[in-house]
User: Fold these one by one.
Assistant:
Number 1:
Amino acid sequence: MPHFSIYSLGLLLLIASVVAMLSRRLRLPYSVGLVIAGIGLALLPKTVELPLTRDLIFNIFLPPLVFEAALQLKWPAFSRELPLTLGLAFPGVVIAAACVAAGMHYTVGWAWPGAALFGVLIAATDPVSVIAAFREMNVAPRLSMIVESESLLNDGAAAVGFSLIAAIAAGASMTPLAIAGSLLFTVAGGVICGLAVAGAVLLLAWRTEDHLVEITLTTIAAYGSFLTAEHFHMSGVLASLTAGLLVGNVGWMRAISEGGRTHLLAFWEYAAFLANSLVFILIGSNEARQPILPMAGAAAVAVALVLLGRALAVYPLAALFARSRTRIDARYQHVLVWGGLRGALALALALALPFNLAERQEILVVSFAVVAFSIFVQGLTMPWLIRRLGLLRAM
C-alpha cells in the first residue's frame, strides 16, 4: 500500500537536488525538470502516495513562496510600478476571467457558476518559472520587477475573486454594494493583517541581534500573517506579500541586524527552494493521474481562452499607461502575456471547488492540463522569447 513517511520526504528532497543540478547543466527551467520527475514517480509500479490538497498548498507552500518573493522586492521600485501592476492585477483578472468563463460556457457548455469559478481560478499566474529564467539570463531589472510584482498581486486578486464567486454560487445573495464591501474587506484586511503581524515581529526583532531568533520571527511573520488573514476570511496572499515587503524594506533599516540579514536571506532562499521543489514534484505526480485524454477537447479550448484572456487583459490595460511614466515597452507586454504561467495557486483553488459543483471533476482535470501547458510550452519557450525580443542586459 503506498504511504507517505519521512523516507518519502527524503526521497523527494534527493530528487529535487538531482533535478536542480541536471537542470542547471542542461539549461532547462528547474520547474519543468521537477514536474517531469513527479510524473516519473507516479508511473513507477511501487511508489509513495503524493497527495496534493488545497490545505497543503495554502497552509504549507504558499506562505514562504509569497513572503520570500516579497522580501526581495525593493519598495521604491515596487511603488513606482504600483499603478501599472495594480491595473494589470485587479482589472486584469476580471477581464481574463470573464473571457475564459464566457468561452467555456458557450463553447464547452459549462454552467455559468462552474465556468465563472474556472475563469477566475485559472487567472492566477505563477511567476516562479519565469523569474528563475530571468535570473539565469540577466534580464532587465524593470521587466523582472513588473512580472514578479504583477504576478504576486494577481494571485491575491484571483484568490479574492474566487471566494466571492464561490459565495455567490453557493446561494449567497449579494448586491453590487455588498460585493464591493466584501472585496474591500478582503483586500484591505489582508494588507492590514500583514502590516500588524510583521510590525509586531519587527518590534521584537529590534531587541535582538541573534540571527536564529530573527529567522524564527520572520517565519512567524510569513505564516502568521497568511494564516491569520485566511482565518478571518481575508486575503492570505496579500497579507504575506505585505509582511514580506515590510520586513524586506523597513526591517533592513534597524530591526534586522546587519549580521543577521545574510543569514535571513539565505534561509528564505532555501525555504522557497524547498517549497517550489515539493510543489512542482507533487504537481507532476498528480498530473500523471489525471484523465486528461478524454478531456483533451475542453483542455485545448481552455488553453486557447486562457491565452486570449491574458492578451485582452495585458495589451489594452498597458495602453492606458502609454502616456504615463509607467508606460511599458511592447516587448515587455509580449513577455507578460506569454509569461503568465499557471501553477500552484490555480490548482489550490481548483482543489477547493465545492463538491456539489456539477463540473468539479472536469474543471480539476482541465486546470491540470492548462498548468501542464504553461509549464512545458510557455516555460520552455520563455528563454527563446527573451533572446528573440532582445531583452538581455549587456554584461
Number 2:
Amino acid sequence: MSMDPSPRLDPTSPAPRPGLPPAILTVLIIIAVLLALIASLLVVRDRGVGAASPATSSPTAPATASPQASSPVPTAQPTSAPSVTDEQVLALMRAEVRRDPADGQAKGDVDAPVVLVLYSDFSCPYCTMFAQQVEPGLSDLVADGTLRVEWRDLAQIAASSPLAAQAGIAAANQGRFWELHDAMYAAADPRSHPEYTEESLMAFAAQAGVADLERFRADMTAQQTVDRVAQATQHAHQLGITGTPFLIVNDAVIGGYTPLEFVRQTVLDQAALAG
C-alpha cells in the first residue's frame, strides 16, 4: 500500500486520495510527532467533550462512574496545547495564516501576536458548543490586540452545510460575517445538526443586519461562492483535517472541542512565545 509522503496536520484522519510513492522514514517521524501531540490533548478532552468528526453524533453527557468503582490514580493533565516542533508541519500550519486586512471572515488586529485559524461548520454540534462556550471567553483577547481569529469553512456535516457556508461568504461581502455567525450559532442546538434553507438563511441575514438582502441571496447562490466553499473543504482534507472544530493557534494545534480554559491558555502561551 502506498503512503502519502506529505506532512498532515491531523495524522488520525484518512488521506482523501491515494498518496504518492513514500519517503517512509520521514513520514513515520512526522506521524510519530503528531500522534504524540494529539495524545497529549486526549487527556484534556476527557474533562470536556470529545473531538468531533463528520460522522460524530451529537454531544452527550459522560457516563457516571459506579460507586463500587475504584478511584483512578490522579495524573497531571496538560492545561494547554504544546507547540509543534516538526519544521515541515510548522510550515504547513504557518502557511494557513493569511493576515489579510480585507478578509471579511477574520476579526482582530491584523498584526496580533497570535492568530487562531478556525476550521468550522455551521451544522456541527461541537462547533456550536465552541461558538457558544469558548469564543465569548476569547473576546477580550481579540479586543486588546492579543488575538486574531480567521475562519475557514469545512462544510461537510449536513446536506445544507455548504449552503450555510455560502451564506457566511455572502454576509462577509457586506461586512456582516461575524454578526451572521453569532445569530446562527445562538439559534443552534448543540445536541443536533441544524439544517438550513435559503429562506432561513435570509432570515438570519436580516437578523444580522445585512443591508442588501437581494445581493446576499445572489452572492449566496452564485457558482463562484459554491466553488469557493468546495475548494476550502478540499483544501482542509488535503491537510488531513476532516473533523471540526479544528484550531491552529500559532505553533500549536487543537483537534476537536476543548474547554475555554484550555484554548485560552494555549493562546496566552503562544502570545508569550511570540514575545
